Amino acid sequence: MSRRSSRAVSPSGTLAFPVVALLGVVLVSLNLRTAVTSLSPLLGVIDAEIGLGAGGMGLLGMVPTAMFALWGVLTPVVLRRTGLEVLTVLAMTAAAAGQILRAFAHDPWVMGAGSLVALAGMGIGNVVAPPLVKKYFPRHVAAVSMAYITGLQLGTVVPALVAVPVDEVAGWRVSIGWWAVLAIVAAVPWVIEILRGGSDPGGSTTAGSTSAGSTSAGSTSAGSAPAGSSRATTVVGGSGPAHRVRPWRSPVGVALALFFGTNSLCTYAFFTWLPAVAESIGMTRAEGGLALAVYSAIGLIAALVVPWAAGRFEDPYPVVVVSVVCYLAGFAGLLWAPGAAPWLWICLLGVGPSTFPLCLTLINLRTRTQAGSAALSGFSQGVGYTAASLGPVVFGLLLSGPGLGGGLAFLTVVLAVMCVVGRIACRPRMLEDTLR
After folding, report:
1. In sequence order, what are the beta bridge partners of 215?
2. Which residue from 275, 255, 322 is spatially nearest to 61, judged by alpha carbons?
3. What's the pLDDT tens digit per position in 284-327?
4. 419 near 255, Cβ under 8 Å?
5. What ranges in 80-214 are assigned the alpha helix state H?
6. Domain residues of the chain, as ranges?
7. Helix, strand, coil: what percent of the chain each, to 5?
């Protein structure tokens, strides 16, 4: 293969690095959690004004994972009738509209409706982001995954960090509503790509073979396909018929879905309840919001390191081991020495979700095609977030009943399951090669 023919072709037909698409991917990633973490530190204030009640606050805690699960299942179906770029614009529009609606809510019903709309958009964005990376950057999967996951982590950390200060200056409505502007901005690069002819309904574009463990932070060698597989030229923007991939027929797909679920269950339990846990061990309300920001901020380091490690090493299972050990150490500190080093325990908990960027990176590293990436993304996030929706509810019930010890015991069982399914998901096998 000549040097020219081995270079990735962008959807618009040029050989230039797709800068607009890169900007679009990063902007979308910044919007995928704003409606979640901007709300949690302010639930008490909002409840006092519009009367959410304990049940309403619990339901709002369920909405993110429920909508992410629902749209994880529905997005691949819709994608076959629209296209990645069009669906991304619709997702960001919904995210903006929902957050604006929440900012004007005067009763729990409007707050709930706004949350449903905003998180539907973000749920769609969760699913389309990995195949966008696969489509536009097939030879830079790990590098662009680092950028996109870092953006996602920033979009998780910053809203939690500024929620209380903005509330104190301008009120909670501004604090949760102004993120709609960022969602509107994120739609612009994809409108440009649509106008340039980059959208292909059905998501049928084939992004050639990307071997497990061979996609480094820089590039993927064309000659590093797994044993027994044929080498394939990476071509983006093709127009063949859509190939239906059924990831539930592969042990890779099932394991990654369960891996995603156990990770998300733990993560969203703390997204919802960490401020309350922090206050229960003697922190102030402001410190509770800061604790959530710190918990999320640790993920920035993981976003830079984990995709690189997943692309550099064939089997990234050590990431799972480190994550679980740090979670357990944080649990032990909160239970038996909460006042000794509370910020250390929060930081250890923050290392735990390092499995999240691993899950997202494996979606592309364990698939050969854009169709496979889209199918695995939807399936793993649909099943995964369905399991994760139990996290805030069960953990909250245990906090109000047996207490913190009961909640952490439940999460310890979940971590044991994560160790098993993570072992299977990390093995260097490709989805398309293991379909039954």
Report:
1. 220
2. 275
3. 878 887 898 788 778 788 888 898 888 888 899 999 999 999 99
4. no
5. 84-103, 108-136, 141-170, 172-177, 180-195
6. 19-200+243-433
7. 70, 0, 25
Q: pLDDT per residue over 114-129, tens digit each?
A: 999 999 999 999 999 9
Structure letter (DSSP) for residue 313? S
Nearest Cα residue to 132 out of 360, 386, 304:
360
Provide the CB-side half-sphere exposure for 61 (13 A, CA).
33
End-to-end CA distance of the chain: 32
pLDDT at 160: 83
Contact 227, 41 (CB under 8 A): no
The C-alpha atoms of residue 108 and residue 53 are separated, in whole angstroms, by 9
Beta-bridge mates of residue 338:
none
Q: Give the type of residue at 369.
A: T
Tokens 């190939």 label which residue?
243
CATH number for the domain running over 19-200+243-433: 1.20.1250.20
Buried b (16+ CB within 10 A) or exposed e, 9-48: bbbbeeeeebebbbbbbbbbbbbbbbbbbbbbbbbebbbe
Pair of tokens at residue 29 = 């990633």
SS3 call for 181:
helix
Cβ proximity of 367 and 432 under 8 Å? yes
SS3 302: helix
Here the tokens at position 322 are: 């480190």
How far apart, in Å, are the Cα atoms of 283 and each of 57, 291, 297, 345?
21, 9, 19, 13
Please say whether the beta carbons of 202 and 135 come within 8 A. no
Question: Which has the closest alpha carbon to 91: 163, 153, 158, 29?
Answer: 29
User: Is 60 exceeded by the pLDDT of residue 234?
Assistant: no
Q: How deeply is 224 buried, as exposed, middle or buried, from its count of CB atoms within 10 A (0-12, 13-18, 19+)?
A: middle
Q: How confident is the model at residue 271 (pLDDT cuts 50, 70, 90)?
A: confident
3-state secondary structure of 72: helix
The structure tokens listed for 158 are 């910053």
Rg of the chain over all Cα atoms, to the nearest angstrom = 21
What average pLDDT score do residues 7-21 get? 57
Burial 80-98 (b: 16+ CB within 10 A, else e): bebbbbbbbbbbbbbbbbb
